[in-house]
Amino acid sequence: MTDETTYDELMEWFTMRREIEFLYKGVSYAFLSVKGGFMLVRENRIVTDVYVDYMVLAHEVAIDGVLFLELFKKQEIEITMVF
Is residue 36 part of a domain? Predict the structure, then answer.
């Protein structure tokens, strides 16, 4: 995506249960919808358990020991696609 994503936009996508692909340190990740909920994958490998509540996943998942939302706020995450 060419425009810089705001925190409010990101939270809206989680509220709408949209799938989100992003890059972190050049590695592809995605929040995906699966049977029974949502999960985080890294290069097509499952990283988390399935979360029923997408917002809980958004607030609890960490990459390299840092919460996803903190990485986003520090602009270390590049959102590449939203479905």
Answer: yes
